[in-house]
Amino acid sequence: MRHEWHQKVANCFEYVLNIVMICIGFVIFGFLLREIYNLAHLLITINDMRAHFNEITEATLAVFLFFEFMSLVREYFIKDAHISMESFLYIGVTALIRAILVYHDQTTKTLLLAISISLLVVALTIYRFFREKK
């Protein structure tokens, strides 16, 4: 009898979590559409792309980050409420590459970001090596 009560509570929490993930997916999709609009507007209205290279690069990489977050929400539903650590490592690497490309004017900051990317790539390699083979 007691086990059934725990299962009902777990099912309720799973239901709430799925609703929250759907809401997060819609919010991320809205931000993705906004970033695509901003990028298109930036590309159409700017005459000299070299002068606004940082803005264009930042907007482009923001679009890629939102694509990755959308794929993370998709993976949650496809893999039955499971998100692999590999996906989070990929998003971290992408975010750090974005930071290097956009904010590359300080040498020490760029070096620290490059070291951080290297550590994430090493962690990704170790994770892939030791994960269970399916």
TrEMBL record:
<feature type="transmembrane region" description="Helical">
    <location>
        <begin position="12"/>
        <end position="33"/>
    </location>
</feature>
<comment type="similarity">
    <text>Belongs to the PsiE family.</text>
</comment>
<dbReference type="InterPro" id="IPR020948">
    <property type="entry name" value="P_starv_induced_PsiE-like"/>
</dbReference>
<feature type="transmembrane region" description="Helical">
    <location>
        <begin position="110"/>
        <end position="130"/>
    </location>
</feature>
<dbReference type="GO" id="GO:0016036">
    <property type="term" value="P:cellular response to phosphate starvation"/>
</dbReference>
<dbReference type="GO" id="GO:0005886">
    <property type="term" value="C:plasma membrane"/>
</dbReference>
<keyword id="KW-1133">Transmembrane helix</keyword>
<keyword id="KW-0812">Transmembrane</keyword>
<protein>
    <recommendedName>
        <fullName>Protein PsiE</fullName>
    </recommendedName>
</protein>
<feature type="transmembrane region" description="Helical">
    <location>
        <begin position="53"/>
        <end position="73"/>
    </location>
</feature>
<dbReference type="Pfam" id="PF06146">
    <property type="entry name" value="PsiE"/>
</dbReference>
<dbReference type="InterPro" id="IPR009315">
    <property type="entry name" value="P_starv_induced_PsiE"/>
</dbReference>
<feature type="transmembrane region" description="Helical">
    <location>
        <begin position="85"/>
        <end position="104"/>
    </location>
</feature>
<keyword id="KW-1003">Cell membrane</keyword>
<keyword id="KW-0472">Membrane</keyword>
